[in-house]
Structures are given as C-alpha cells and as structure tokens.
Amino acid sequence: MLGNLGKNLTKTMKKLAGMSIVDEEVVKEVIKEIQRALIQSDVNIKLVFKLSKSIEERALKEEPPKGITPKEHIITIVYEEMVKLLGEKAHEVEIDQKPYKILFLGLQGSGKTTTIGKLTRYLQKKGFHPAIVCTDTWRPAAFEQLKQLTQEMNVPLYGDPENKDALDLAKKGLKQFKKHDIVIFDTAGRHKDEKDLLQEMEEISSVVDPTEAILVIDGTIGQQAKDQARAFSQATPVGSIIVTKLDGSAKGGGALSAVSEIGAPIKFIGTGERVDDFEIFDPERFISRLLG
Ligand code: GDP
C-alpha cells in the first residue's frame, strides 16, 4: 500500500533502508525531501511547514512497532499525516434525502459544466434520475452546452436563455424538478466582478438550500486554489471538492491546499475531457502523485 510513496522519495528512502534506528538527522533529511516535493507540487508553503512539523514530531517520538522497520515506520507516518489532511477516506455522494440538491460552484474554465456531465453519468449508473438546472445567465453558451450534454444522456434540463434572473431560474428549476431524486444546479463562473459572483452564489444558495455544495477546482491552477476555496466557502458552506484536469502533468498540490483551507473533502477527480474520465478520489494515489 505504501510502496509508491517510498519509491518516490527514493534517495532518502535508500539511506533509511539499512538503518535500525532513525536518528534526528535522517528524519530531518526525509522531511526536507518531502517539503521539496510538496512545494514543487504547488502545495501552500504554510501547509507544507505544518505538515512537516507533525511528521517530524511523530517520527522522532514514536518507536517503530515490532516487526516494522524504521523506514516503513516513517513512510507510514508521512502517509497517515497526509491522509489525515485529506479527510481520511474516499467518500462518495450519499443520496440520503429527496430531492438531493447539489449546487455546483466554480470559476469559469474550471471544468464545472463538464464535471456536471460526469457526475450525472456516474449517478445515472447508480440508478438515480438526476435533473439539471442552468442558472448561468452570464455565459450565453452555458445553456447550449448543457442542452447538448443532457440530450446525449437523456437527462431533463431546466433553463431559459432569455431569463437573466439567476435566482428566478433557480426557484423555477427547483419547483419543476421537486419530484426528482437528485437536482443539480449549474451556476455562473464569472460576473461583473468576483464580489458580484460570490454575492450571487450566496443568494442562489439561500434559494436552493443545497444538500451539498460542490466546488470544482482546476487541478492545474496551483496556489490560487486556496483563495478560490476560501472565497466560495464564504458565500456558501462547501461540502466537497472535485478536482479537474488531473490527466495532465499537474500534481494537484493547489487542491490539497484548498482542502486544508476549508476542510471539505475531495470526492472525485476529473482525468480527461470525456464523460467517463471521472474517478472516485483515492487519497493514496493523490499523495503518491504529490510526492513523486
Ligand atoms: P466551465 O467553464 O467551468 O463550465 O468549464 P468547462 O466544463 O466548459 O471546461 C473547460 C475546459 O476544460 C473544456 O475544454 C473541458 O473539456 C476541459 N476539461 C474539463 N474537465 C477536464 C479534465 O478533467 N481534464 C481535461 N484534460 N480537460 C478538462
């Protein structure tokens, strides 16, 4: 289970392999290498220090359990501390009330619309019947994009490109689909300015009263992810995060910083442009990628 992580920190881990006890110098060296890897992966610097402090404290204090080598022990600590940060376990969406109202948030270009398609397909495969409401009155193509998507998947869509009142659209959509098991609300990703966008999200959130607000974060944006997460979570309590575009070279360290900023777990990741390029979030793989 911890193989990748060890492999990725190769040099230091090699040194560790032959030792029967891990002294302070070695622990500090491992920590330094982890720090380097995390910073290169765009993890926020304060978070890197917080993380290394907890790893160092445990590595120096705790004796390896019987049968566990110092190397395995330190890998376990690194792994556990990082997983703790990510919220322990991969969660799915648990549909426990009807209609389950999902509010999608995210800046334009983050992959929000594509991700709505992906989540819808995922939920359909589980036997649910989601409906989608388009409240984006700022991007003229948003409704068209959703229309195409929903037609392909045979999903009901409510929207009205003539209506420029996002709150009214949200209300009408909610009314129309109140008998559905899941209603997904697409929202605008841009506005006159960011303040207005966040104000609109706050208002839509109070109209929709979402069961779960999902923030879509572009995995390639690095440090800005943290600020985006904070801004959106001030508009409405963000329940979970989906990180997109992890099919490229991006390591998603920004997303890790976003998670730590608002304490919402990552539930899924996007790994391509197609509707099936969508995976349940796997903390272990994510961490290996960050440190690799
Ligand atoms: P929105 O403005 O947030 O609704 O973003 P879109 O859903 O229109 O996506 C913006 C661009 O990102 C499009 O070209 C998508 O195909 C692309 N995209 C979305 N998710 C992913 C992903 O997981 N991987 C890759 N490679 N591209 C993605």
What order do the helices and strands come in, and which of them pair?
Elements: H1 3-8, H2 10-17, H3 24-40, H4 45-61, H5 70-86, E1 100-105, H6 112-125, E2 130-134, H7 140-153, E3 157-158, H8 166-176, E4 182-186, H9 194-208, E5 212-218, H10 224-235, E6 240-244, H11 253-262, E7 266-270, E8 278-280, H12 283-291
Parallel strand pairs: 1-4, 1-5, 2-3, 2-4, 5-6, 6-7
Antiparallel strand pairs: 7-8
Helix pairs in contact: 2-3, 3-4, 4-5, 6-7, 8-9, 9-10, 10-11
Enzyme class: hydrolase
GO cellular component, one term: signal recognition particle
GO biological process, one term: SRP-dependent cotranslational protein targeting to membrane
Describe this structure in words.
By secondary structure, the chain is an alpha/beta fold. Helices cover 51% and strands 13% of the residues. It is elongated. The two termini are 15 Å apart. Guanosine-5'-diphosphate is lined by residues 106, 108-114, 189, 244-245, 247, 270-273, 277. Guanosine-5'-diphosphate binds next to helix 6. One of its GO terms (biological process) is SRP-dependent cotranslational protein targeting to membrane.
